[in-house]
Design goal:
The structure holds 2 protein chains of 2 kinds. By secondary structure, chain A is mainly alpha-helical. Chain A folds into 2 domains: about 1-85, Up-down Bundle (Four Helix Bundle (Hemerythrin (Met), subunit A)); about 140-185, no CATH class. Chain A has helices at about 1-25, 25-45, 50-75, 80-85, 100-125, 140-145, 150-170, 175-184. The longest helix of chain A is centred in the middle third of the chain and has 27 residues, at about 100-125. The radius of gyration of chain A is 23 Å and the shape is extended. By secondary structure, chain B is mainly alpha-helical. Chain B has one domain (about 85-115, about 125-365). Chain B contains 13 helices and no strands. The longest helix of chain B is centred in the N-terminal third of the chain and has 37 residues, at about 20-55. Chain B is globular. In chain B, about 45% of the residues are buried. The chains are: A mainly alpha, B mainly alpha. The interface between A and B is medium-sized, with 27 and 27 residues.
Chain lengths: ~180, ~375
Amino acid sequence: MFLNVVFSLSALLTVSGALMVVVTRNLIHSCVFLLMSLLGIVGLYVTLNADFVAATQLVVYVGGVIVLMLFAVMLTGGNNTKEVLSRFGFESLPLMGNVKTYFWGILSAITMMSVAGNLIYRVAQSSLASVLEQYKSSVDEIGTKLLTDHVLSFEISSILLLGALVGAAIIARPLGSKQLNEEK
Amino acid sequence: MNQTIVSYLSELFAVNFSPWVVILIFFVAVFVVVNVMALIGGLATYAERKISADLQMRIGPNRVGPYGLLQFLADGVKMITKEDTIPRDADKFIFALAPLLCLLGVLATLAVLPFSSGLTLTDLNIGIFYLLGVSSLVGVGIFLGGYASNSKWAMLGGMRGAAQIISYEIPVTITILSIVLISGSLSLNQVVERQGAFPNGWLLFHNPFSFIGFFIYFIGALAETNRAPFDLPEAESELVSGYHTEYSGMRFAFFALAEYIEVFVVCAVATAFFLGGYKIPFNYGAGTLLGQALQVAMFFAKTFALYYVVIWIRWTLPRLRVDHLMTICWKYLTPIALFNLVGIAMWVWLFNGRSLYMIIKQALVISGK
């Protein structure tokens, strides 16, 4: 009963948040609604007994990605809705792209919808209303799996992160006097 | 689901509660904890004023109630009756949302705080990870509050707040990770259970690295809660009052309350990680309600001692400059924290997780003294 209530609330939060992200015209509001939607997904993970994934979702998306997006939107001045709407004198944006882009767009949309529909159809066919297993923490299992079966992907992702870190350091490093002269 | 307080009560009275009673008991427990925390947050403002008065040889609030103890209630009434102003060009939706996000992030952390072995709302197996996750909501709240006010002071304060909180999360998280290495669990209760009641059993004195780690955590926690000497987001001499410049009335009170409760939370986490948490010497009164009461008292005593230190630091040290703030975080705290992490991993591997005290004791026993 309790789980059902939590599931319904988080599903509502996820779907309505995702809808509002698309509907609202203010980019900062979009970010806030995205935060709402991601919090709803945390609730969905919790109802599925995936506690570690839920906490990771909180740390990575709520604490990191949303703040990054807010910074990006704010520093690029994305909240200026009036200018975007009135630059061409239109209330709506003009059609973007040509026949080719529309062809590929429609094709990919049909492909994705058929894949998603296939998945949803199968899920609707099977009886999902089974009883969840007793709550058991998944942290130990995830840790063991990461360092035994999936150690290669673990190491590769660490190299990727190291690369990102070094790249950020190189970009942010102050220019030496020699490079400054070269740029002049 | 896992409601520690309910399972403790059902063990104590040897009854099985029906689901509705479980929800009711849990609701009451949550209600009590949140309200006690709000009371502590209110009393902390009184303590802050009184201690600062003491440090500056003044008297401080002494008119309302005995020793001015009810001052925070008078402040609260004043806050409620104040006009709730919203600047005309502010982003009204986010302006209203930001203080709530701040308060939500702080109150959500209370769920995993181990007040005693029985009085823990829920002993999550990933308690520490959860705590780090929800407390990052505070940063979003501060940033949005600064942005939505549409004021230069608030904007600068919000930017500083977000940058500072994100930066200082790194040394704090690495230090917490090293504690997890020692205790081998992400649950706060198990970290506390692993420690002893006396200082020789605390993780603070477990090894030299964890001793350094405590100070890194404490400095980082001060910065994450925007307390002096790291209160740059609300630096009143430069930014009027930073991200909550445009807020008034209860909305401002939410920001203030969130800050004071968050200081309590970080002090409580420091207590649980490094200072032995709720452990009572000789496990006195184990299994009875008296033991639980003693454990709660022990936990709160340690936490309030740390809280005093936080206030003491605020009224003693001058504020840092922005570039110094970032230098301390990235050039000192983070490398030291990484060094600590490796050091603790080596220690746990070399000595099989034994503490310095145990090693010395064993050496003395072997040498026959």
